[in-house]
Amino acid sequence: MTTTLPTTEDLRARARAGLERIGVTVPDGPDFQARTPITGEHLFGLAAATAADTEAALTATRRAFLTWRSTPAPRRGELVRRLGELLRDHKSDLADLVTVEAGKIRSEALGEVQEMIDICDFAVGLSRQLYGRTIASERPGHRLAETWHPLGVVGVISAFNFPAAVWSWNTAVALACGDTVIWKPSALTPLISLACDRLLDRAAEDVDAPRDVHRLLLGDRTVGEKLVDDPRVALVSATGSTRMGREVGPRVAARFGRSLLELGGNNAAVVAPSADLDLAVQSIVFAAAGTAGQRCTTLRRLIVHRDIADTLIQRLTAAYHKLPIGDPFDETTLVGPLISTTALDGMQDALTRARAQGGKVLAGGNQRLADAAPRAAYVEPVIVRVDEQTDVVREETFAPILYVLTYDTLDEAIALHNDVPQGLSSSIFTRDQQEAELFLSAEGSDCGITNVNIGTSGAEIGGAFGGEKETGGGRESGSDAWRAYMRSATNTVNYSGRLALAQNVSFL
Ligand code: NAD
Predict the structure, then answer these.
(1) Phi, psi dihedrals of residue 429, rounded to the nearest 5°
(2) CA-based, 20 to 30 A from 484: which of 102, 167, 305, 411?
């Protein structure tokens, strides 16, 4: 375990240096604070967007859309390519900001920036591949086709735990698709947002794209609510808790806007008797304890065959006891801080409820480094054995708690797996092909992400990302998720010189 932490002054200096290299003037404002979960202390004061700022952003991005939508898509891709180059140049500075503000360990922070670079590469390719289809017409001398057009202004509302990558998934794809973007990041991660915004500004200057293809609005949920309610925002892409989605979804629907919701998960892995346990243990520990349990795809439930449960639990608890917890900048640390002491309170509350509902804590749960950093929240990841899927197990607690259940038949495991309100990510560990295929089939996992012999977290950008049920149904990032950022039109062209109505209708 790391016993020393950097001082807040060191962290402030590190953030300031990174911001200055990127070209951001270090902020100073009265409304809210940038803080670091590493010490739990305040870094800089910031100004929140006013109603006038929001109005100006809406007007400017709407105006920019009117030219951006007609800019050839491969030229739009040049802006995204330049953004990707700048992200590469500032990878280390950006990763520093992710660690300072979100508390991610160094390799995960670098991984988050790599994900941003990867989605830029993907979106540049996409800018030459916004394909529509030609469809067989039932009428002679007719051509039936589908075309895809830019949608408008996209409002991106993002969560603290992927403070930069979620923005880039949305923004790189939206820009390639011909949309303009307004970003309302989490109030917990304003500094990395200022850095990303500045780099996109620089990219726009470098390729002569309109500056107003993008605007950043800092602030709390009230700023996000304005985007949710404004009919000039064609698509609200909102990432965060199911609570947030429950508010945002109906409000956007009430004005017939489009929403793309990426909400909470309660992800599970099934471990079958034939599983390679070495592989399973490594995967489970990363998925459950990595990022201090603060990924939407974090493994929260383990459904283990009864015959191997004791062996697997013993190996997992041994691994948990050795997890290095502490300073996320220390290369040996694997578990950094929780985002806040409020998150720690939520975790302790869930553990109290789990015990009251019959759960037994098998490893972890103690707070660490409370003397060194009383305002921070370092905690040992926890394993809790439960006999059934009680209320607390069926909820997402955004902290490193892994509930372990046992099963006898695969049907029973799949039923337990699907019996939660969320449907984001899932895994099975097995060397039995029939079991693997059943898990991936229509009768298997009901999640948007279904894996075999790999954990629930750590998706690649090439696939579409998102989940079902209370996870919101949205898909972002790769595959054909771009279609959510465009509108399609069906074109019928009659080149026959005669009128032939569909379905053989005759008229006149
Ligand atoms: P949160 O819901 O507290 O906040 C997310 C964002 O929504 C913030 O920018 C916040 O200001 C804004 N917001 C909240 N209420 C709003 C409202 N009524 N109208 C408009 N904006 C509103 O989430 P968080 O604590 O920052 O992040 C953790 C949660 O995000 C977890 O539940 C996690 O599973 C989820 N998450 C999901 C995904 C995914 O892709 N499915 C990815 C990352 C995080």
Answers:
(1) -105, 115
(2) 102
Residue whose CB lies within 8 A of the most ligand 1 atoms, among 220, 225, 241, 299, for a mutation test: 241
The first and second tokens of residue 266, run together, are 């309660």
Q: How confident is the model at residue 3 (pLDDT cuts 50, 70, 90)?
A: low
Residue 2 reports pLDDT greater than 70: no
Which residues, in sequence order, are bridge partners of residue 150? 486
pLDDT digits (tens, 9 = 90+) for 490-505: 999 999 999 999 999 9
- Cα 90 to Cα 82: distance, rounded to the nearest angstrom: 12
| 26 band by pLDDT with thresholds 50, 70 and 90 | confident
Residue percentage of the chain with pLDDT more than 70: 99
Residue 162 beta carbon below 6 angstroms from any ligand 1 atom: yes
Distance 73 CA to ligand 1 centre (A): 31
pLDDT given for residue 27 in this prediction: 82
3-state helix, strand, coil in the chain (%, to 5): 45, 20, 35
Structure confidence by residue, pLDDT tens digits, 404-423? 999 999 999 999 999 999 99
pLDDT band at 56 (very low <50, low <70, confident <90, very high): very high
296 lines ligand 1 (CB under 6 A): yes
- 157 pocket-lining for ligand 1 (C-beta < 6 Å): yes
State the SS3 of 403-458: EEEEECCHHHHHHHHHCCCEECEEEEECCCHHHHHHHHCCCCCCCCEEEECCCCCC
State the first-to-last Cα distance of the chain, in angstroms, to the nearest integer.
85
Q: Is 396 among the residues known to form the active site? A: no
Q: How far apart are CA 173 and CA 42, in angstroms?
A: 34
Residue that is written with structure tokens 């243990």 in the block: 281
Average pLDDT over residues 323-351: 98
Which residue out of 108, 115, 262, 476 is catalytically annotated?
262
Residue nearest to atom 26 of ligand 1 (CA): 159
Assigned token pair, 348: 């302790």
pTM above 0.95, yes or no: yes
β-strand partners of 34:
44
Q: How far is the C-alpha of 173 from the C-alpha of 170, rounded, in Å?
A: 6
Mean pLDDT over all residues of the chain? 97
* Smallest CA separation from ligand 1 atom 39, residue: 262
Distance separating alpha carbons of residues 174 and 77, to the nearest angstrom: 10
